[in-house]
Amino acid sequence: MLRDKNLIPLSHQHQRALALCVRIDRASPIEDVERGAWQAEIGQTFQTEIAVHFSAEETVLFPAARRCEGLSPLIDELLGDHAALRQYFAAAEAGTMSASDLLAFAQRLSAHIRKEERQLFERLQQALTAQELATLGAQLAEALSDAAQACVIPTETTKLRPAK
After folding, report:
1. Does 149 map to a domain?
2. How far is CA 13 from CA 5, 45, 47, 144, 151, in A?
3. 14, 151, 164 from 50: Cα distances, Å
4. Contact in structure between 156 and 25 (CB atoms under 8 Å)
5. In terms of CB atoms within 10 Å, which of 2, 5, 16, 155 comes out highest?
6. pLDDT confidence bin for 149, thresholds 50/70/90
7. pTM for the full model?
8. How far, rounded to the nearest angstrom, does the alpha carbon of residue 28 sit from its chain's CA centroid?
9. Domain that holds residue 22
């Protein structure tokens, strides 16, 4: 299903986060000397975009979704993902992630994003009217206004590598 224009700002942020996941996956196994660069980028990404993204979902999107029949269990699952992902982001900011933690983080974040895109967004687009989606979009735009409008630029260490 084509993404409704009111959800596109979240989808664009998802695309940038998925790009980070792909780069981590392709770089794995990540050498010990490279872990600092990866953790710095993960921490910067959280501070500039994902913290605001999670907040917008938790204060605007998820409450709207809970009003749709049958979506509460999915919202509970997504909130659990947010909690687990925040632990990964905190570990990155503390510089305590192992190479396997980096890969597990990328897999968890990627799965979470796909769940939102393929399940939550699709079901919201079916359940909400055009006016309800427009209202939601306006609320999301306000909630996302503090997020960075550009993605973090990968370093030489964290740039995309050819598939192995």
Report:
1. no
2. 14, 10, 13, 10, 9
3. 9, 11, 28
4. no
5. 16
6. low
7. 0.91
8. 20
9. 8-143
